[in-house]
Amino acid sequence: MSTFDSLGLSPELLSAVKKTGYTQPTPIQSVSIPKVLAGKDLMASAQTGSGKTAAFCLPILHKLQKRNPKGPRALILTPTRELAAQVLENLRTYGKEANLICATVFGGVKIGPQIRQLRNGVDVLVATPGRLMDLYNQKAVKLDAVEIFVLDEADRMLDMGFISDIRKIRAMLPAKRQSLLFSATFSPEIRKLAQTMLVDPEEVKATPENQTAPSVEQLVVPADKAAKINILHALYQEAGWSQALVFSRTKHGADKVVRQLDKLGVKAAAIHGNKSQNHRTRTLKDFKAGKITMLIATDIASRGIDIDKLPVVINFELPQVPEDYVHRIGRTGRAGETGKAISIVCADEIKQLREIEKFTRSTLPREELEGFEPDHNLPESHSNKSVAATRKPARNRNAGSGNARPGNTSAGQAGAGKRGDSGAKPDARRRGGRPDSNGNSRNTERQERRPEQASGKRSGGRATVIASTTGGRPTRSSGRRRVAGAA
Ligand code: AMP
Description:
Rossmann fold; seven-stranded parallel sheet; binds adenosine monophosphate
């Protein structure tokens, strides 16, 4: 196992690294840093959370060492403002003892101060493509002194439609330079881009392509759409997470979740493209400081969200593209920690779920939450279709009542999203199967549509539901787990 000392970094950088508390380099750092120091172009497959930012920031700081007034000598392009800010923070942390000026330019804030900063001289510039183009067109920045160019989160850049800006920026750079491309996933399109940008690159991988980090335990909670907010609340109450990052697909949806959580007494805030940059920065700061319990983010705004020890990521809605699922859940289980990624999925989202499972080459375990079993069955995904054929017939949920828990009736009455009592603590226990060693769900009969559900009626209260399901299934006890655990 390599140590930081063996990577060839300067004593100043090693001392800065030590002060951050890192004891050893992450795999992507171990393989990338010596190659970048040796002047190689790099094509790195690294997820967020792998330590990829230090993998390029540290050797850049090492190589530049001294100030040079000619203009930026390193240019780091990031897809979003948050990620740009995050990279700058890394540069400043590691480069405390280096005599270099690092700065960032991105849209959504006044351009004047950025122009002034560039005029005063910048050694390492972190930029989003749109604002960099604006500055270049206004002749506020020159790129002909760039020695090292980094394209960070290239897959996201392409998803966000930056390809033409990237091509233009590439054309502004000196032909003789070192280029590094980091991407969580490598589609044929990214490989094509890499060919036009890198010279004889070294290919390095931190995690297998298109895979999620093993440090993140993943789970799907089948749900009716209208019940999602109550399920989120129930999961939170049961687990007692210190904080959660919740993903919504749309800006409007994110704001709605905030309003609903607010009514349920949970401190939440949204971060998305309609919010001003100052608002986004402040919200993120508040979340990092623990003043906000749930941060509701859209995919675009979530880039660069790096929160220490974030215990859980919730997909309130699945993303449209499976790559985003990998990015989203990479926000937890970072830097040696473990984390949970829970997706609350309704029947309408089966297409996205199937795509995610195909993309990550895995079958996500499913567990229903007791009291919130969906009326609209979440269909099988491709990967566990064969198991569906062996499903057992539906059971009568009203059989037996010995396990009824007092005080839970109100939550049960609301079962499918009609619960209005925010104060009642629901019995947020899940049911259903974790996959066996072949990735198949053990309890797929859970996904069978039950007769009383088909009629849309939940005659019993919540306590009745628990009693009937557990009472009728003696073997179920081993498959029932509390949601919390991870917190
Ligand atoms: P990144 O993938 O660059 O976004 O980094 C994810 C997290 O890992 C950040 O919070 C970094 O501060 C942290 N980190 C980076 N390198 C190390 C390391 N060698 N040891 C422990 N944590 C690290």
